[in-house]
Amino acid sequence: MKKLFLLLLLSPLVCFSQLDIGKTKSQIKSKFSYKPCEEGQKTLMYCSSDGNMIGYVFANNMCESVQFYTVYSSKYKADIELEKAINSFGQENNETPITRGGATSFIGVNGVGVTFSVIQFKGSHYVRQIYQAY
């Protein structure tokens, strides 16, 4: 129930963050009141105290991808939540996904491709949701 509440709470953030695609790195940084937990030449990562993260990937200083990482206590729990997220997204957008190599993608959602997967990063299991311009 907590994760469902988090998903509903983050839904506006997910929609709003899709608007970040095409913005410059400095525009993204200016919308946050705190510093990124990781920063590279082509990336920004913002971390929350509960372990969740949001990442930005840049090409030619323009955001081309927004990535949401939701942490789970085990791969099993992440896999269950991944299936729920894929089914919910497909129903809400009336889209059929393509599954390949452990990732599930939706193509053609408002000019943005959306990919879901479970990854392990720094010892934790995450459901990763990637929004990328195409």
Summing up helix and strand content along with how strands pair, one would put the structural category as alpha+beta
**What is the chain-wise order of helices and strands?**
HHEEEEHEEEE
What average pLDDT do the residues reach? 86
- Give the low-confidence spans: 1-16
Could you describe the largest sheet, including whether it forms a barrel? 8 strands, antiparallel
CA-CA gap between termini = 34 Å
Strand arrangement across the biggest beta sheet: 1-2-3-4-8-7-6-5
Number of strands: 8
Radius of gyration: 14 Å
Strand-residue proportion: 35-45%
Number of helices: 3
Helix fraction by DSSP (H/I, runs of at least 4) = 25-40%
Shape: globular
Q: Key terms for this structure?
A:
134 residues, 31% helix, disordered N terminus, alpha+beta, eight-stranded antiparallel β-sheet, 3 helices
